[in-house]
Structure formats: structure tokens, C-alpha cells
Amino acid sequence: MTYYPPVSPYAAGLGCKCPRCGQGMLFKSYLGLHEACANCNLDYAKADSGDGPAVFVIFIVGFAAVAIAFIARFVWYAPIWLAFLLSIGVAMISIFAMLRPLKATLIALQYANKAAEGRLEE
């Protein structure tokens, strides 16, 4: 059995790297995972973050987008269409920037905490 030094799940997640070795790439496309790590051969078949990353991003970006629209409208006195346009633009950029690293971080945290499917004991 090969020894792998501990890797911070946050460093691996933000770098979108393998949660076991911290070297191999986790994603093959924007949100699609590789079959396994090219470096340590960790199988990614059981890695599933579900809807968690999307929920976190919605809460974070939604709060920021509303705050930006409010500031643009009532502090800078921008027309309402400009406030909405600015808010939507910032929200779209933030969503695409945050979704991938958040998904990788949740997968790395699952690996670090040895998360598994729930089982009922008889």
C-alpha cells in the first residue's frame, strides 16, 4: 500500500486537485470529473457532491447580487435597468468562478472525512 501524506481538503479543493495526493487534476471538463486520478489512481466513481455546491453558491451570490443592485440603485442613483444589469453581470461571473472550486472542495472534504452512503444495521 502506498503512503500519501495528508493533503488539506481546502487546498486540494481550491486547486481542483485530487483529494488523496493533491497532484492529479480532478475535472476533465467544467464540472465533469475524470474517471480516476492520473497520479495516484484514486477512483472518482463514488465522488458525488450532489447539489451542495449549487446551494452554497446560490446563497452567497444571491446575497451579493441583491446588495450590489441595492447599492447601485439607492447609493449611486443608477437607473433600475442598470442596477439589474450590473447585478446580473456580477452574479453570472461569480457563479462560474465559484461553482467548480466549491464542488472540488466538497468532494475533498468527503474524502478527508471518509464520508460514505448511509447504512441501516439489522
Walkthrough of the structure:
It is a single chain. The protein is mainly α and 122 residues long. It has one domain (9-112). The chain contains 3 helices and no strands. The longest helix is centred in the C-terminal third of the chain and has 33 residues, at 80-112.
Give structural attributes.
mainly alpha, 0% strand, 122 residues
Task: Lay out the secondary structure.
Layout: H1 9-14, H2 52-74, H3 80-112
Return residue spans where pLDDT drops below 50 for at least 5 consecutive residues. none
Query: What would you call the shape?
Result: elongated
Separate helix tally:
3
Q: Using DSSP, what is the number of strands?
A: 0
Average pLDDT across residues?
Answer: 94
SS-based class:
mainly alpha
